[in-house]
Amino acid sequence: MRAGLKYITRLNQQRGMSTEHTTYIETDDQLGAHIVWNDATIVHQSVTHRGTRLEFVERPRWGISCFMNGVIQSCEHDENIYHQALVDPVIYKRNDGDDYIVGIFGGGEGATAREVLKYAHVNAVDMFEWDNDVIQVFKKHFPKMADGAWDDERLNIVLADAFSIIHTLHTHVYETIIIDMFEPTDKSVPEWITFFRAVKRTLRTHGTLSVYAGMYNHFGKGHEQRILRQVLEDSGFINIRLCRVYIPSFLGEACFMYAERPPQNQTVDNT
User: Fold this and answer.
1) Final residue belonging to a domain, choices 15, 40, 75
2) Based on the domain organization, do 153 and 238 belong to the same domain?
3) Is residue 267 part of a domain?
4) One domain for residues 254 and 161
5) Residues annotated catalytic, as ranges
6) More confident residue, 1 or 29
7) Residue 239 near residue 270, CB atoms below 8 Å
């Protein structure tokens, strides 16, 4: 979930559902620039019971884009780039016959589950999402994003807060965990370390982890990504690596961090 860049959206008409073309303006605080989208159409707008403001904007050549609290989350034109980068590098083939179970934290639009469920050897997916209204909006108005994932019998949706439910899950359950939420900040580091240590306990030995790591800020020289790497190191993960992928609709490079759980008896040294 994008939270690294703050966008302020303004419309030249009153708020509400519309089929009329309008001007949609994004203000990128990081770049200090305004991006003006002409001939845009607001196809859906609502506020969830969690207080999340959802806007779905159709723009020429880009298709429908989803904004949450004024920040673009996905775009019909290029969302596959984002979700494939989030999922594909951490799904691998087991040879021991055990079930391959995946945990997803976030991903309310269903696209992350869609990419995971493309793999026939994945036996089950637990998707933890705290805002059910987001899921229901995508199910009702934009089912194309999930491309059938909502109806896949392997998908189990759990409505819960990630930071709470992670401490109730059994150990050594998942082969892969994918986290598509907001990235850590300097102030939230202790909370995230506690969270990722719990995540590590739910992974099997050599289990893989993928985390959305925010947008790369060239002015800050990747400060947010350095924070996340340190959090993962302090949480005991190994083989931590960063991937930067240009997402046109995000106007920059989205970052993803991959890691593994070490063997139980291995002493972790990430120096």
Assistant:
1) 75
2) yes
3) no
4) yes
5) 180
6) 29
7) no
Is 266 within the bounds of a domain?
no
Number of domains in the chain: 2
- Domain that includes residue 128, residue range: 79-260
- Over residues 206-244, the pLDDT tens digits come to 999 999 999 998 877 889 899 999 999 999 999 999 999
C-alpha dihedral over 192, 193, 199, 201, to 10 degrees? Answer: -160
Segment 78-82 shows an average pLDDT of 97
pTM: 0.88
pLDDT tens-digit map of 128-169: 999 999 999 999 999 999 999 999 999 999 999 999 999 999
Mean pLDDT, to the nearest integer, of 99-108?
A: 96
Looking up residue 30, the CATH number of its domain turns out to be 2.30.140
